[in-house]
Amino acid sequence: MLPAAAGAVAVAALLGGCGLGFGDEMIGTPSATGTQAGPVVPEPPTGSGPAQQSGGGGGGSTTPSSSGPSGSGGSGGSTQPSSGSQAAGVTEVRTGTWDVGDAGQVQFAVRQGQLQLLAATPASGWQQAQPPTTQPDAIEVVFGAPLGTKWTFQVQLSGSTMQITKQKTVAKAADGSYPVGAAGSVDFISSGSQLKLTNVAPEGGWSVTQRQSSPTSISVSFKQAAGTAQFTAAMSGTDVTVTTSQQLSGPVTTT
């Protein structure tokens, strides 16, 4: 996932109710008050089956591509993130079934003013990296694949306002172009032990609010009326870890 001022108020109200922040801060350690349930089994009458794209696996570095969903390679293949992929971005705020990149699906509802996780189904080659965290006002599901690639799906509820977040972390990421949810894309290259930011391309309706680059790190932030998105790349030795996330807030819409 309004005018700028209204969007800011909605997000502030949401974060105040949930006690969580945007971006990487939102994907932190679950609250001690949360319930960590075991694997969630889909309810037969609702939702659709799991996403059928195979997860990224195998050895070698993670390679971006402008075509194909992220993690479309099987075991031993390269991960290929899709530019502007619907599954990777957040373009609406609603309950129901959500694709989480190529990692799987999450289904949730709002009942009597509380969030309910109905299903968390990994795609082939993926697994739940940790038990889902569920609270009346927050849900977090993390899918993991080999090489340390992770997709995180998070929902926060504050009154009649809901925020949806998708975050992807890629270990040993290769040079190239990386989609940042529905907000745009960021290109970088690495040479030896240095990173270089080569291009930032926001999508329509989004603007770039931050662009920082050093030999070992890159940070780019995007913003639109009701949401934000972030890209970070960090180099340790010759390995690069890329994290992308996007959030969108709005009135609760049930499906």
Q: Would you mind describing this structure in some detail?
A:
With 255 residues, the chain is mainly beta. It has one domain. 7% of the residues lie in helices and 45% in strands. It has helices at residues 4-18, 23-26; strands at residues 35-36, 96-100, 104-111, 114-122, 127-128, 133-135, 138-144, 150-158, 161-170, 176-179, 184-191, 194-202, 207-213, 217-224, 227-236, 239-251. The strands form three sheets. Strands 1, 5, 6, 7, 8, 9, 13, 14, 15 and 16 form a ten-stranded antiparallel sheet that branches. It starts with a helix and ends with a strand. Residues 1-63 and 65-84 have low confidence and may be disordered. Residues 78-89 have a biased composition (Low complexity). Residues 30-91 are annotated as: Disordered.
Quickly count the domains. 1
Compute the number of helices: 2
The protein's oligomeric status is single chain
* Beta-strand share of residues: 35-45%
What is the end-to-end distance? 16 Å
**Strand elements, count:** 16
Helix and strand pattern? HHEEEEEEEEEEEEEEEE
The largest sheet is: 10 strands, antiparallel
Low-confidence stretches: 1-63, 65-84
Basic shape:
globular
Report helical residue fraction.
under 10%
Radius of gyration: 17 Å
> Mean pLDDT across all residues, rounded?
76
